[in-house]
Structure formats: C-alpha cells, structure tokens
Amino acid sequence: MTSIRRASTADLATISLIHLRNMRRMVEMAPPGLAQTLRTPPSPAQVEAYFADMTGDADSLLLVAETESGVEGFLSACVEHHPDDLLDSPYLTIEFVEIIPGSESRGLATALLQAAEQFAREQDIANVDLSVWQGNGRARSLYEHLGYAPIEIRMVKLLRD
Fold it and tell me: Helix, strand or coil for residue 136?
C-alpha cells in the first residue's frame, strides 16, 4: 500500500539521500560537456536545508511516497506567481520527481504527480509544468502518458573543448 503525504522535517534526511543518489544517476545521463554542477554535488546537509525551506512555505509542495518499506520517493514543486510567456500565473512548477532505485515502475511517480495536480486544482491553479531531459525517455514517456506535452525545446551549443 502506497500513501502520498506532505513531507515532514523527519523525512528530510531520506529525501536528501534519494536526491543525492539521483544526482549521480543524472550525471551518467548528461550529455558530454554538460552538468558540471552535478559532478560536484552539494553535501547532504545542503540538500536537506534546501528541502527544509520548502516544508514551511505555503507556495511550496514537498510530497513523499511511502510504502511499508518507508519513504521510496518524493516530489517537490512550487507555485509560480510571475507571468510566463506561455503560462498564465499562477502555475505549479514541478522541480523534482525522484524514486529510489529498484522502486521504479510501481506507480509511485504517477501517484506523486496526481497528488501535485490535485494540490494545484485546490489552489485554483490551471497549469502544471515540468522539465525533463531529452535523454530521459522513461520519464518523458510517463509524463506524456499522464497528459503532459512539450511546449518548448532548450538548445545548447558548447563553445569550449
């Protein structure tokens, strides 16, 4: 049985560990020459402090997916109040959807996303946006299955060898 709930301060260490593990996985997916920041990750205390700020902020959403085994994933999001070229404000930006390795494909990310969408509806927010790396086909497939559609493409040109 999976439950989705708001994260508490007691969850921050676990969220931090999940995030740091996934940062290492993201480095492996990064195109050559990019993601230098990810190659020198922050300390667990820095990551924990980042997410701790979200627990008391009315415009932030930090959810955990909890099973009998404990917290196995989380979602972080924030309400954006500034206008965007494409989206009317306010809108909800999903920052991270992360599941521990070995717990993927069990519906945890779907449940987290649906809970975030419900939060947005309750706040009378009409749009939810997120970013996904081009090479993360698994996540892109999930997001498209849930009704998310691309609206812009970020392009890069490396100018140094």
Answer: coil
- φ, ψ for residue 52, nearest 5 deg: -60, -35
Crossing angle of the two packed helices 137-145 and 108-122, in degrees rounded to 10: 50
**67-108 pLDDT, tens per residue?**
999 999 999 999 999 988 899 899 999 999 999 988 888 899
Longest dimension (CA), the chain: 50
Q: What is the pTM of this model?
A: 0.92
In degrees, rounded to 5, the angle at the alpha carbon of residue 144 between the alpha carbons of residues 139 and 147 is 130
Ordered by where they begin, the domains of the chain are: 3-145 (3.40.630.30)
- Cis-peptide, bond into residue 90, ω within 30° of zero: yes
Other Cβ atoms within 10 Å of 150 Cβ, number: 10
